[in-house]
Amino acid sequence: MKILVVDDDLLAAEMTGAILEASGYQPLIAENAIEGLELLGTNPDIAMVVSDLNMPLVSGIDFFRELREQGRQIPFILLTGDAPDSLLQSEPDLNACLTKDFDLAETLPSIVSQLLHA
Amino acid sequence: MALDIKKFIHRFIDEAREQLRMLEEGLGQLGAQNGDSELVNSLFRAAHTLKGSSRMLKLLSISDTAHSLEDVLGALRERKIGLDDATRDLMLEAVDNLGNLVEHLASQPNPASLPEKSVSLCQRLSRAASGDAAAPLADTAEFAPAQPPTETRPGPMLRSADSVRLKLDSLEQLIRLMSEVTISQAGLRELLDDARQLARNWDATSLHSGNDSRLFADYQQLYQNLRDLIGAQESLVQNLHEQSLSLRMLPLTQILEPARKLVRELGRELEKPVELQILGEDIELDRLLIEQLTEPVQHLLRNALDHGLENAAQRQAAGKNAKGLIRIHARQDGGWVSIDISDDGAGLNVDKIRQKALRQQLFTEEELAKKSSAELKNLIFLPGFSTSSLITELSGRGVGLDVVKRNVEELQGMIEVTSTEGGGTTFNLRLPLTLAMLRILLVEAGNHLLAFTAQHVVEMIYVDEQAMLDIAERQVFVLRNEFIPVFEPATLIGLPEKRSGIRPKADSRQQLMLVLQVQHEKIALRIDHMVDERDLVIKPLPAHLARQPLVAGIVNHDYRQLVSLLHAPQLFSLAQRSRGHTRNNIHQPDKRLHVLVVDDSLNTREIEKDLLEAWGYQVTLAEDGQDGLNKARTGDFDAILTDVEMPVMDGFTLTSHLRQEERYRHTPIIIITSREKESDRRRGIEVGADAYIVKGSFDQNSLIDTLKVLLG
Predict the structure, then answer these.
(1) Which domain does B203 fall in, by range?
(2) Which residues form the Response regulatory domain (chain A) (predicted)?
(3) Is the pTM above the cut of 0.90?
(4) CB within 8 Å: A81 and B8
C-alpha cells in the first residue's frame, strides 16, 4: 500500500519512510507540497498522506487544506516538531497529528493501521 | 520493532555539520541591521531541521539545544527581540556546543553515549528568547560544570568544510588559463584536420611500394590514435572550462537582496508605501555582470519609485491600492537572463515625452508626429533626456537612463521600456549569463571574417535576386510582411575591399542574408557564407582600443586567426546614418501632399516613409489601425497607406472606419500587404480601399504611379 511522505528535511522524510517500510507499506517521498500533489496525481492508488508541518512556502496545514478543497478525502497525518494539541484544535478535521519523536517508529505505524481500518 | 532507525546516524552527522556551518556563517552575516528576514528565516529553518531529525534519532542533548537556539531565532524572526552582540555571541556559543556534540557522535555513533546538554546554555538561550538580556558570563551557574571534565567531554576540533575561500586573483588567473587551453585545444582540432587531409592525399597518390604502404598503415594508426585522444581530451577540456566558468557565477540575490533595503528606504524617504516582489533571484550570472548590473538595477528601481509610482493619494484617487508594487522578475532563457523591473504606477506620459523632446530640440514637431508611441517611449533613453523634471534622477545622482542603456549594451545586453497609461511601466533587460563565453556566428562577407553574437541574429535566409526590391535607392526584400533593408557589411563598417582568388559562387542569384534584430528593428547583411557557429571565449579589446564602439570583443577562429565581434546596436546606428544620404534628391512639388502610413512593422514603416519622402510627400506614421484612426481623425491627410495584419485593429477595419468619416469618404486608401489571396483582395475593395498592392511584387514605381493617379 502506497503512502505519501512529505518533508522538506530529506533525512527526516527518509526516516519516516523507513518506519513505514518496516511496517510493510510502500512510502513515496516528496520534498514539498507541490511535489506531493504531483505524486498524488500520478499515483491515484496512494492511500494516505504523512506530512511534516513546518515547511517553506506551503506548510503541512496548507497542504492539508488544499487537498480538502480539491475534494480529496484521503487520510492525512500531520507530523510536527512541536506539541500537536493546539494544531488539532485549530484544524479538527485532521485525521491525526503526531510529534516527530524518537518513538515515532511505534506511534506512526499504529496510527496508520488504525486509520486504514477505520 | 523491525526497524533500526539508527542506521541514519551517519547521514545525520553529515547534514548536521552542513546545517551548523550554515548557522555559523549566517550568524556572522546577520549584521547589526537585523533587517534581513530571509536570512533569519533560513537560520531558523536550519535550527528547526536539526532539532527535528535529532529528535527522531533520540539524540536528546542535540535536539534540546537546537530547540533552544530555534526559540531565539524564532523570537528574532517575529521581531520580539532585537539582535545585539551578546545575543549573537550566545547563539554562536550554541552552534559551537552543537558542533562538539555532533563531532562526539561522529567518534562514537551511539546515541546513549552522547553527553548531556548544557543546562546553563539552554537556560540562557531561553532567557534571550523571552527578551531578557542575555545573561552575562559572570552568571554563577556558568562556570560550575555539571560534571567534571573527563576524557569523553567533546573539545573543539577542526571540522572539514565543504567550501573554501580563495583569492579572486587566483580564480581569474585560473579562468584565463583555462580559456587559453580551450583555444589551444581548438588548434589541436585544426591540426587533426590537416593530418587527416595528409592521409587522404597520401592515399590518393596510391604509389605505395611495399615500404610505403607499411609506413602509410603506421601513419593511419597514428592518426587514429591521435584522433581518439584529442576527441577524449576535447570533452575533458570542455567540462573543465565550463566548471571553471561556473566558479565565477553568483546568484542574482547579490544585487536583489540589497535592492530590498534600497526600496524600503526610498519608499520611506519619498513617503510612498511600496511592496517589492522579487522572482528568480537564484539565477546565476557571471560575477563581472553582477558587479556591473548593480548600478543600472538600482537606477531603475530609484526611477520606478520616484517617477513610476504615484503618491498614495493619487493612487487611491485612481482606484489603486495605496501601496505601490514594484516587481523584479528574472527568468533564464537558454544562455540569457531576462530581468523585468516593473511598477504599477501611472505609466509613461507620451505627451510629456513629446513636449520634452520638442523643448530640448531633439526633434522637430514634424518628426515627432511620425513616431509611434513605442518609439516615443524609448526616447527616454536618449542622452540628456531623462535628467529633467520628466524622468529626473533621484537625490542628485547625475545619471540618466542613457547611461543605464549604455551600461547594459556594454554588457552585450539590451534594454527596452514598455508602458501602459495608468497601468505602469516595465523595463526589460536582457543579458548573457556570462561574458566570458557566448554563442557566436562566424560569417564571411567580401572576404572578411566577421563575428556576431547569436542573440542578435534572427535568421539566415537565401533570397532570390528577383525578390530584391529597390525602394528609395535602397535594396530591400520582403520577409513575412516586413520590408528588410539590405546592407553590404564591408561598406557599412568601412572595411577595405579585399579580393582573393576565391570568388563567391558564380550562381549568385541566390543571396545569403544574415538578418539581425535590435529591439524592433531589423536589417539584413549580405554575406558570402557562414563559417562556424559555436560557443566561443570572448577576449576584451586591449585598453588602448577599448573605446571602439563597433567591436565588442575578439574571438579566436581556429588558433591562427582573430576575428572582431561586431556590436550589433552600433551597426544599426551606422545603417541609420547611411540611410540619411539617400534623402538628398527630393523631388519638390509645389504643394506637399500629406500621406499617413499605417504598419505594425517598424522597418516597413520607415522604408515606405523614405520612398514617399523621396517623392516629395510629407509622411506621418502609425503603428496599428487604432493609432492610424486616431491620427487620421486629428490630422488631415491626402492619402492613406495601410497594412492588413496589425494588432489592436487591422487594416480592413481601419479602412471601413475611415470610410464612415465625412472627411475620408473619398480620400485614396491603398492597402499594402503580403496577403496574396483573391478573397483578401476582394475584401479590401469591399471595405472601400482604392488599391491593393502585394508586398512580394512591390514595385516602387507602381506605388508612386498609383498614388499619382489616385491623387489626380
Answers:
(1) 170-247
(2) 2-115
(3) no
(4) no
- Which residue of B2, B52, B58 is in closest CB contact with A9? B52
Q: What is the CATH number of the domain that holds B532?
A: 2.40.50.180
Q: For chain B, which residues score pLDDT lower than 50?
A: 1-2, 134-160, 387-398, 501, 506, 581-586
Contact call for B5 and A18, based on CB within 8 A: yes
**From A98, which residue of chain B is nearest by alpha-carbon distance?**
B56
Q: Same domain for B224 and B282?
A: no
Q: What is the bridge-based pairing of β-strands B336-343 and B424-432?
A: antiparallel
Q: For residue B149, is it within any domain?
A: no
CATH code at position B424: 3.30.565.10
pLDDT number for residue B391: 39
Tally of domains in chain B: 5
Contact B651, B624 (CB under 8 A): no
DSSP string of B482-543, one letter each residue: -EEEEE-HHHHHTPPP---SPPPPS--SEEEEEEEEETTEEEEEEESEEEEEEEEEPBPPPG
Name the percent of chain A in helix, strand, coil, to the closest 5: 45, 20, 35
Largest distance between two CA atoms of chain A: 33
Burial of residue A19 (CB within 10 Å: 0-12, 13-18, 19+) is buried
Q: What phi and psi values does residue A63 have, to the nearest 5 degrees?
A: -60, -45
Give the pLDDT confidence of A7-65 residue by residue, as tens digits.
988 888 988 998 998 888 999 999 999 899 999 999 999 999 999 998 888 889 999 99
The answer to the question of residue B315 being in a domain is yes
Q: Are B399 and B496 in contact (CB under 8 A)?
A: no
Q: Are residues B290 and B420 in the same domain?
A: yes
Q: What confidence score (pLDDT) does residue B61 get? A: 92
Asked casually if ipTM beats, i.e. exceeds, 0.85, the reply is no
Count of CA atoms in the C-beta half-sphere (13 A) of B283? 25
Closest CB from A8, A9, A105 relative to B5: A105
Residue of B nearest to A56 (CA): B45
pLDDT for residue B580: 52
Can you give the CATH number for the domain in which B206 is found?
1.10.287
Closest-approach residue (CA) in chain B for A80: B52
Same domain, B128 and B29: yes
User: With contact defined as beta carbons under 8 Å apart, do B415 and B380 qualify?
Assistant: no
pLDDT reading at A72 higher than 50: yes
CA distance A44 to chain B (A): 28
The pLDDT of residue B151: 38
Between A8, A102, A105, which is nearest B3 by CB?
A105
For the beta carbon of residue A103, count every other beta carbon within 10 angstroms.
12
Cell numbers for B120, please give them: 546553563
Which domains are assigned to chain A?
A: 2-101 (3.40.50.2300)
Backbone angles phi, psi at B326, to 5 degrees: -115, 130
Question: Do B35 and B81 belong to one domain?
Answer: yes
Q: Which CATH number does the domain housing residue B119 bear?
A: 1.20.120.160
d(CA B100, CA B113): 13
DSSP B455: G
Are β-strands A46-52 and A76-80 bridged in parallel, bridged antiparallel, or unpaired? parallel
Measured between CB atoms, does B55 come within 8 Å of chain A? yes
- Are residue B297 and residue B419 in the same domain, yes or no? yes
Q: Are residues B232 and B260 in the same domain?
A: no
By Cβ distance, the residue of A14, A22, A100 closest to B52 is: A100
CA dihedral B41, B42, B44, B46 (to 10 degrees): 170
Residue ranges of chain A whose CB lies within 8 Å of a chain B CB: 8-9, 11-12, 14-16, 18-19, 21-22, 52, 54, 56, 81, 100-102, 104-106
Domain-ending residue, one of B578, B608, B623: B578
What integer pLDDT is reported at residue B293 of this predicted model?
A: 87
Provide, as residue numbers in chain A, all residues whose Cβ is less than 8 Å from the Cβ of B53: 9, 11-12, 15
